[in-house]
Amino acid sequence: MSPQVARQKDQREGLPAFSAPYAPPDEALAETLLREAQRPADAEARIDARATRLVEAIRAKSGGLGGIEDFLREYSLSTREGLALMVLAEALLRVPDAATADRLIEDKLATGDWTHHEVKSHALFVSASAWALGISARIIQPGETPENILESLGKRLGLPAVRAATRQAMRLLGSHFVLGQSIEEALSRASHHREFRYSYDMLGEGARTAADAERYFVSYAGAIRAIGQTAGNVQLPDRPGISVKLSALHPRYEAISRERVLEELTPRVLELARQAKALDLNFTIDAEEADRLELSLDLIGAVLADPSLAGWDGFGLAVQAYQKRALAIIDWVRDAAGVLDRRLMVRLVKGAYWDTEVKRAQERGLADYPVFTRKAMTDLNYMACVTRLLAARPHLYPQFATHNALTVASVIEEAGGVEGYEFQRLHGMGEALYESLIEETGVACRVYAPVGGHRDLLAYLVRRLLENGANSSFVSVAADPSVPVADILKRPQAWIADAGHARHRRIPLPRDLYGPLRKNSAGVEFGDGASLAALLSGVKSAAPLALARGEAAADALAGAAQGFASWNETPVEERAAALERTADLYERNRDALIALLQSEGGKTLDDALAEVREAVDFCRYYATEARRALVPERMPGPTGETNELTHRGRGVFVCISPWNFPLAIFTGQVVSALVAGNSVTAKPAEQTPQMGAAAVALMHEGGIPKSALHLVLGDGKVGAALTVDPRVAGVAFTGSTEVARQINRSLAAKDGPIVPLIAETGGINAMIVDATALPEQVTDDVITSAFRSAGQRCSALRLLCVQEDVADRILEMIEGAARALVVGDPREIATHVGPVIDAEAKEKLDKWVAVHANRVCFRHEAAPSAGLYVPPAIIALDRARDLTEEVFGPILHVVRWRADELDRLLDDIAGNGYGLTLGIHSRIDQTAEHIVRRLANGNIYVNRNMIGAVVGTQPFGGSGLSGTGPKAGGPNYLRRFATEQVITVNTAAAGGNASLLAESE
Ligand SMILES: Cc1cc2nc3c(=O)[nH]c(=O)nc-3n(C[C@H](O)[C@H](O)[C@H](O)COP(=O)(O)OP(=O)(O)OC[C@H]3O[C@@H](n4cnc5c(N)ncnc54)[C@H](O)[C@@H]3O)c2cc1C
Question: Which residues are bridge partners to 588 per DSSP?
Fold first, then answer.
C-alpha cells in the first residue's frame, strides 16, 4: 500500500485507536516524574520570584466574589452572613418553583429545629466546602457553619428579607461564575474584555434523552454562529471558540454503547466542527470521566480524520493531568496531528472529577485508580505534560488551564517565555492572577466562559465551589493570608519526595476498601477497552463449569443429617477458610460463571459481573463475620466461675433460593448456614439449576465436605417436600411472600422443635421525589432502579411518587431516557435490558400492561418481538394505594402527589404492608427525616438509586410482608443460623477459689 493510500484509508476509518494501561501503579510513574522534575537552581529561583509576585497580587486584589460588597451593604449583612446566604442560594438554584423555594428557605431558617438534631446532615449544602468560596478562611471562625449563621440571620432580619436576599445572592452567584444567561449576553460582556480570548461553554447536565441531545446540538450550533459573527478579523489561535461536552450530545455516552455512539454521534460532532471550521474558531472537546476517555478519543479520531476538516488548526481537546494516561494521550494527539498534517490545540487541565473517579474505582473494585491520589502527583504529571506539549509544537498548540500561580510560573520557565502557547482560566476565577500576569508579560490568556440560565448552573457551580473550597486547592490557600507563601511555593517533587510516597496514605486501594479483614471483590471497568475485551473473550471461550450432582430430596436430607456432626465440630476458622477458598475459586472461574449467568439467567454483562462479585463478597464477609460472631465469648460474672457463650450449628438447614440472583443469593444463604456449623440441603430455583450445581461444585472444591452440602434440583413441590421433613432444623428462603407463608405454615404444622425460618420476600418499592430533587439525578436513578435487570430484582422500584409541581418535566425526562435504552440479547454488550426469566413471567407482565392499557403512558417501542422480552413500560395510577401487588418486571407505576399531601402518600405506601426498599429524592433534610420516621422499610436510599445493596455496607432485607430479617450481608445474620450454648464452669469446685486468693493488693 502506498503511503498516500494508507493515509486515505486512515482518514476514512479514523485514526489508530488509543491504548494505554488504564490504572497503572503510581510508584512506577512517580519514579520517572520525579527524575524529570529536576531543574537548575537559577530556574527554581526565577519560578519562586514570579510565583511570589503572583500570589501577592492575588492577595492584594482578592475580594472573593464580584459585587459582594454592594450586596452586603444593600442588606446590611456581614460578610459571613453573605457567605452563608450564598450557600443557601446555591441549594436553591435547583428548585424549580417559587413555592418550593420558599419552603426550602423556611425549612432552613425555621429556627429551633436545628438544635434538636444532634447530627445534622449536610446533604443540602452539597457545597459545604462552598463555604470556603475562596475567602472564607478570613471571615469564618472555626466551628461556624452555614446553618448556625443562617439561623441567627433569620431571627435578626425576618424571613421576607432573607428570602429577598437569598434570591439576590442567587443572581450574584450566577453572574459570578456564568458569563451570560444567553450567548448574546455573554458575547456582549466579553466584548468589554479585549485583553482575553474566550471559549464559550453551553451549560447543562449531560443529555438523558434524545431530545436533550438535540437541544444541546441546536444550542451549540447557534452559539458557534453567534461567536463567529462577532469574532472579527483576528487569526487563530487568537480567535474565540467553543467548548463542547460529548455527554451533552448523546443520551448514552458510555463505553458499552460504543458502536451506537460512534455511529450516531460522529456525524453530529463533525457537523459542529465543520461549522466551527467555516468560521475558523477554536473548537475544544472537554475532558470528562476516565471511563469515557477511550470512547472520546475514538470519536475524536473519527471526526478529525474527516477530510472536510483538512487545513483547519482550530480543533482541540482537553487532557486531564490527574489521569495516569495523560502523557499517552498527548502522544496520541501529537501523532494524530502528524498523520493529518494539521495543528491541533490541546488544553491541559488538572481535572474536575477527582472525587467521582476515586469513588467509581472503589465501587467497581478496580485493581488501582485511573487518577493519582495525591495532588502533588497531579501537579508533577501536569508539568511533565507541559514539557511534552511544548516539545510537540508546532504540531500542537498548548493551552495551559490553571489558576495556580506556581504552575503558571513553572510553565513560563519551562517554555522559556510566553510565546507559542496560551493560558486559560475559568470565568469568575483567577482574575487577579491573570490581570497581573498579562500586565507583566503580555501572555495570551483565554477565559472559559459558561453560558446558561440558573436552572443549568447547578452541576457546574458545585464543581467550582468544591474546587474553591478544597483544602488542597491553590485558590483556597492562596486566598488565606495565614498560609505562608513559602508553603504555597513548595514544589510537588518536595511533597512527594520519593516514589514510595506517591499514593495518598488514607485512600486505600479499591481492593482494600474493607480493611485488613477482607478483600473487596474484583471488578472490571468497562471503559477500559483492554479489560473489557479480555472479559468478553474470556466469557466467550470459557469452558463449561463442573456441575455437582443433584440428589433425591430424601437422600440429600439423610446425607446432610449424617454429615452434620463432623462439620459442626470443624473449628469455625476452618469453616471460614473454606468460604474464602470458595470466594477465590469464584473469582478464578469468573468468566465461566458469567457465561452461565447469561445463558441460563438472561443477565447482561454488567449484571452478571456484579452478581459474581456479590457472591464473592458474601463468602468473604461471612467468613469474617464467623470469626467475629461465632467464636466463644467470655461473659462477665462472679469470681470462682467462668461463663462462656458459644454457638453451634442447628442441624440440617434447607436453603431455597430464587432465579433472579441464582449465584449470589444461592451462595449467600448456603455459606452462611454452613459457616454457622449446619449441614445444608440446597435447592436452587427450577429455572436456574445449573448455576446452583456449579456453585455447589465450587464450594466442594473449596473444601466444604460433600457430606455437609447436598444439592436437590426441582420445582416448588420439591422445595415443599424438603421443608416438611422432620429432620430440618431451619429454612432460609428467598422468594415470594406467598411461598414464604406456605413454608411457615408447614414448619408450624410439624411436631418437634420449632425451627427458624429466615425469609426474604418481595416488596412494592416506592421512590418519593419532591420538587427540590435534581431531575437528571432522579432520571438516572429511576431508570436504573426500575429497568435494570429487566426489573427482576426484589429491590427494584415499582412505584414512583413525584410531587405534582415537577412531575411533567421529570416524567418527560424519564420517558425519554427509557426510550434510549437498548432492549435485547443480554450477551450483546450494548444491551441495557434483557429478557424476563420465562414464558410464564412474560405472559403475566404482558397481561398486566394490557389490563392497564388505558393508563400506560410509556411503552418502549424497540424491543425484539421474538423471545422473552417485555418492553419497559410506565403506568400512571391515581393513588399509591392502587398498586397492591408486586409486579416483577420492567414496569414502573407512577403517581403524582400534592406538596401538602405527603402524609397521605406515606399512609398509602405504608398501607400495602410491604417494607423492603424505599427511595427518597429531596434536598430538604427534614422531609427525608420525616419519611424515614414514618416508614419502616428495611433499606432506604436517599438521593441515589435503590438497587445493588453491597454486602457488609448495605445489609439487605425488609420488614412486614417483605421478610423476617435478619438482614443478609449484615452483622446480625449469622447468629440466626446458629444455636447458642452457655458453658458455666465452677472453677472453685475443687476446693476453693485459687485465683481470687492469689490476687495481690
Ligand atoms: C479553562 C479551563 C477549562 C477546563 N476544562 C476542563 C475539562 O475539560 N475537564 C476537566 O476535567 N476539567 C476542566 N477544567 C477544570 C480543571 O480541572 C480545574 O479547574 C483544575 O484542575 C484546577 O487546577 P488549578 O491548577 O487551577 O488548581 P490546583 O489547586 O493547583 O489543582 C487542583 C486540582 O488538583 C487535582 N487534585 C486535587 N486533589 C487531588 C488528589 N488528592 N490527588 C490527585 N489530584 C488531586 C484536581 O484535578 C484538582 O482539580 C478546566 C479548567 C479551566 C481553567
Answer: none
Angle at the Cα of 672 (from 671 to 677), degrees rounded to 5?
95
Nearest alpha carbon, ligand 1 atom 9: 287
| 445 catalytically annotated | no
Here the cell at position 365 is 473494585
Contact, 708 vs 560, CB < 8 A? yes
Residue nearest to atom 25 of ligand 1 (CA): 402
Whether ligand 1 lies within 6 angstroms of the CB of 78 is answered as no
Cell of 818: 427509557
Whether the CB of 196 sits within 6 Å of ligand 1: no
CB 505, CB 515: distance < 8 Å? no
Rounded-to-integer distance, Cα 887 and Cα 649, Å: 37
Beta bridge mates, 347:
318, 399
Please give the distance, rounded to the nearest whole angstrom, from the Cα atom of residue 477 to the centre of ligand 1.
15
Name the residue of 243, 293, 350 whose CB sits within 8 Å of the most ligand 1 atoms, as the mutation to test its pocket: 350
Sheet holding 633-634, edge to edge: 633-634, 641-649, 978-986
Could you report the per-residue pLDDT of 434-461, keeping only the tens digit for each? 999 999 999 999 999 999 976 677 667 6
426 CB within 6 A, ligand 1: yes
Alpha-carbon span 91 to 170, nearest angstrom: 9
Side-chain-side CA neighbours of residue 839 (13 Å): 1
Does residue 955 contact residue 967 with C-beta atoms inside 8 Å? yes
Cβ of 296 below 6 Å from ligand 1? no
Cell for 22?
488504564
pTM of the entire structure? 0.92
Give yes or no for residue 381 CB within 6 A of ligand 1: no
Ligand 1: which atom is nearest the Cα of residue 351?
Answer: 17
Asked whether 374 lines ligand 1 (CB < 6 A), one says yes
Mean per-residue pLDDT over the chain, rounded: 90
Question: Per-residue DSSP letters for 540-564?
Answer: HHPPPPP-PPP--HHHHHHHHHHHH
Instruction: Please identify which of the residues 760, 776, 815, 886 carries the catalytic annotation.
Output: 760
Per-residue pLDDT reduced to its tens digit, 850-907: 999 999 999 999 999 999 999 999 999 999 999 999 999 999 999 999 988 999 999 9
Distance 449 CA to ligand 1 centre (A): 16
655 labelled catalytic: no
Contact 961, 947 (CB under 8 A): no
Residue 410 CB less than 6 A away from ligand 1: no
Among residues 585, 798, 596, the alpha carbon closest in space to that of 687 is found at: 596
Q: For atom 15 of ligand 1, which residue has the closest CA? A: 352
Q: Which residues pair with 399 in a beta bridge?
A: 347, 422
- Dmax of the chain from CA atoms? 108
480-489, 682-691, 886-895 — which is least confidently predicted? 480-489
Rg of the chain over Cα atoms, rounded to whole angstroms, equals: 31
From the CA of 763, how far away is ligand 1's center (Å)? Answer: 44
Sequence-distant (6+) residues with CB within 8 A of 761 are 734, 735, 736, 737, 740, 794, 958, 961, 962, 963
List b or e across 156-192, with b for residues whose CB sees 16 or more CB atoms inside 10 angstroms.
ebeeeebbebbbbbbebbbbbbbbbbebeebbebbee
Instruction: Using pLDDT thresholds of 50, 70 and 90, give the confidence band for residue 117.
Output: very low
Q: How far apart are CA 234 and CA 194, in angstroms?
A: 12
Pick the range with the lowest mean pLDDT from 84-98, 185-199, 764-778, 815-829. Answer: 84-98
Q: What count of other Cβ atoms lies within 10 Å of the Cβ of residue 439?
A: 10
Contact 225, 276 (CB under 8 A): no
Please list, in sequence order, all residues whose beta carbon lies within 8 angstroms of the beta carbon of residue 416, skipping any fewer than 6 positions away: none
Residue with CA closest to ligand 1 atom 8: 286
DSSP for 57-93?
Answer: HHHHH--SSTTHHHHHHHTT--HHHHHHHHHHHHHHT
